[in-house]
Amino acid sequence: MPPDVVKRAGDAGAASSARGGSAEPGTVRPGGRTARVRAAVLQAAGDMLAEQGFHGLDLAEVARRADVGKTTVYRRWGTVAGLVADLLTDMAEQSLPRTDTGSLEQDLLANAELVRRTLSDPRQGPLFKAVIAAATGDARTAEALHRFYEVRVAQWAPCVQDAVARGDLPEGTDAAEVVRAVSAPLYYRLLTTDAPLDEAAARRAAGAAVAAARAGAFVRTP
């Protein structure tokens, strides 16, 4: 996965401290009642993305579903792209931490399984399809999607770095590329076929990434 998103219990990310200054709409981290409003709006936005896609996302309808005033939504997020950017930020903040088993195979299999479960989820799978489709034609959505995956890849890269330190992988292995190689087949399967994302697909993706990494396929070249 680029890694996936599976929500943690609670709303820890939404309760982060607000940033001061002239922040871009949708980027300030609120607390208290504002955090609850943000959580409700992002939940409604995610539901609508999963149901109707990016082009079906309407700020007024999001406000209605979240039981929030329209002016609040327009003032805070400004545009649909701004709302989607904040949704992706929240998803990255709330996603589960990486697994640390001490085994490269098990760590990458855990990553593949997390991606598989997310993309197979009745809500999350369509949501990701909608955001990926939107990113092809909207620069701000694309930027937010890239940031989301940068965060997730960085969270899982240490399992590869640890394998290099143990001597399980060649020196110079690009950890981020190994992590991307795990989830890439799962995303390709999601977007290009109607075949189910089963456990066998996750095992193949993780196993192929491990084999390629051990063969030196991801060693950085000058």
TrEMBL record:
Annotated segments matching region Disordered: 1-32
Stretches with biased composition (Basic and acidic residues): 1-10
Pfam families in the record: TetR_C_11, TetR_N
Lineage: Bacteria, Bacillati, Actinomycetota, Actinomycetes, Kitasatosporales
Chain ranges passing through the membrane: none
Organism in which the protein naturally occurs: Streptomyces antimicrobicus
DNA-binding region, residue range(s): 58-77
Keyword line: DNA-binding, Transcription, Transcription regulation
Domain HTH tetR-type: 35-95
InterPro entries: Homeodomain-like_sf, HTH-type_TetR-like_transc_reg, HTH_TetR, Tet_transcr_reg_TetR-rel_C_sf, TetR_C
Ranges of Low complexity composition bias in the record: 11-22
Name under which the protein is recorded: TetR/AcrR family transcriptional regulator
Domain of life, per lineage: Bacteria
Positions in coiled-coil regions: none
